[in-house]
Design brief:
single chain; alpha/beta; Rossmann fold; 7 helices; binds 2-amino-2-deoxy-6-O-phosphono-alpha-D-glucopyranose
């Protein structure tokens, strides 16, 4: 586990973007695992900037996103598909057909989870997985549970997560109650993991996740066992 302490959010974003840019340069046809939330917004902005300057090329990149809300279609402004288009894909030369986000509107969610898991395998796995962390230690939408959930599955979001994500919706009651997410095993199979976190409100959970015991009560703690984990953080640990 490598911990890179950044000065602030902007510095964290640049450092994380540097790591992703290096991945793209070293392996132009990388499979990138991507994340949503407020943490990666600055990272994506920096990547767009470097793309505009001609430093990085997304034309051979494939992406798979961690998760999606159940019940939201890709054109809903709060869907993660919309977020990705808006914050990254619309601004770089990635082939949209090679950008994958679980389908939150699938009729059969179990079949959708299986399809997504198989898709990731058929792509040869994720080269670099970007992650944020929730206040309860969730990664993707893997909430604290008695066991580590393994592969892509549907989850019921807990109250803390719904409250935290209400800021993006009109009100708490508009936040979907369920989501589909890559599982812990799906995430752990990524060849490299890059976790970003900033802000005093994430301090407690970051300490628990990376200096406490590995436990499904703090899902991110499993990352301590990942052979190639880099944490870029500001104001947490
Ligand atoms: C959501 C996403 C997670 C993300 C988390 C933290 O719940 N499903 O992937 O890491 O929010 O978000 P933020 O970066 O806004 O704190």
């Amino acid at each position: 586990m490598k911990i890179i302490r950044a000065k602030d959010y902007a510095d964290m974003s640049r450092k994380a973007a540097n790591i992703i840019a290096a991945q793209i340069i070293l392996k132009p046809d990388s499979v990138l695992g991507l994340a949503t939330g407020s943490s990666p917004v600055g990272t994506y902005k920096q990547l767009i900037d470097w793309y505009n300057k001609g430093d990085i090329d997304f034309s051979q990149i494939t992406s798979v996103n961690l998760d999606e809300y159940v019940g939201l279609s890709g054109d809903h402004e709060q869907s993660y598909r919309y977020f990705m288009n808006d914050n990254l894909f619309n601004h770089v030369n990635i082939d949209k057909a090679r950008t994958h986000v679980p389908n939150g509107k699938a009729e059969d969610m179990d079949a959708e989870c299986q399809r997504y898991e198989e898709l990731i395998r058929s792509l040869g796995g994720v080269d670099l997985q970007l992650l944020g962390i929730g206040h309860d230690g969730h990664i993707g939408f893997n909430e604290p549970a008695p066991d580590f959930p393994t592969i892509t599955h549907c989850v019921e979001l807990n109250e803390m997560t719904i409250k935290a994500n209400a800021r993006f919706f009109g009100s708490e009651s508009e936040v979907p109650t369920h989501a589909v997410t890559m599982g812990i095993q799906t995430i752990m199979r990524a060849r490299k993991v890059l976790l970003i976190a900033n802000g005093a409100d994430k301090k407690e959970i970051m300490e628990k996740a990376f200096f406490g015991p590995v436990t499904p009560a703090v899902p991110a703690s499993i990352l301590q066992m990942h052979p190639d984990l880099t944490i870029v953080t500001a104001d947490t640990i």
